[in-house]
Amino acid sequence: MSEAPVLVLPDFGKVFEVDCDASKVGIGDVLSQEGHSVAFFSEELSDSRLNNTTYDVEFYAIIQALRHWQHYLVHKEFILNSDHEAL
């Protein structure tokens, strides 16, 4: 049995955290605060991106997260997490 994810409202007095990951078929990002999810974002990779290197796809996941949540993150310090060591 699975449960629907519970999202919390953003608190602009707290630090945001962005977690990014990529796979062979898509990217996924989570915006959170103090371990609680604020928002999710995912995207299926286009045919042209399927042949990109792991580095490029992981970096693309970061770029898309920052674009998607720029209204939360602009002019504010935040924590960015990626499981790709080179980034």
From TrEMBL:
A GO molecular function annotation here is: catalytic activity
The answer on whether this UniProt entry bears the keyword Nucleotide-binding reads no
Q: Which InterPro entries match?
A: DNA/RNA_pol_sf, Retrovirus_Pol_polyprotein, RT_RNaseH_2
Q: Which controlled-vocabulary keywords does the entry list?
A: Multifunctional enzyme
User: What Pfam families does its record include?
Assistant: RT_RNaseH_2
Report domain Reverse transcriptase/retrotransposon-derived protein RNase H-like positions.
Answer: 2-79
The name on file for this protein is Putative mitochondrial protein
Lineage summary: Eukaryota, Viridiplantae, Streptophyta, Embryophyta, Tracheophyta
